[in-house]
Design brief:
The protein is mostly helical. It has one domain (18-178). 65% of the residues lie in helices and 0% in strands. Helix 1 runs antiparallel to helix 2 (65-78) and helix 4 (102-137) packs antiparallel against helix 5 (150-178). It is elongated and about 65 Å long.
Length: 194
Amino acid sequence: MGSVNDNQSARPAAGRSTYERGRGLLGKLESLLLALGAFAIIGFCAYITLGIILRTFFASQIPDEVVIVGELMVAALVLPLAYVAADKGFIAVEILTSRFGKRAQSWLNMLAATVGLVAAVPITYAAYLAAHEALESGNYFFGILELPEWPGRLVFFIGYTVLMLRLVDLCIHELLVGLGIVKNHQPPLPLDNT
């Protein structure tokens, strides 16, 4: 189970197939979500730090600190999921699988992506229902700022939708590699300079 960046040959964008361009576009979307997740981490770290400083030195506090930090933490955890899946960066035990041939590894990768997809579909559907309900009802968190619930629910749905798209892509790609239709060439992730 290697990285997305294994066995790459640099080819000009004009020579890429529609399939490869689509995978590259999905990679760019994943990179954008990764960057947004990083900004969410910076945001909640700054918010927590400011809250600590205000409580310690000024006997004051930031309004709705728990709600804002919680919502930013959801974004930080969910938005990069598809990027991690594309890079096959999840925790894996490769004691036996690394000894198999490339084609057998491809079939095992397809199995892993399929199991992940089976797990992601109900979560994505539940996220859709939660986001839709939050948008329709206009619910908000109780607190001084009365922040709406829909941004966090929508971010969660977007993160899992893109993860589901990547898992479908991985299933199709590994199937094609396993059948020998395509070589195991995968486009680099957009943030890579290789």
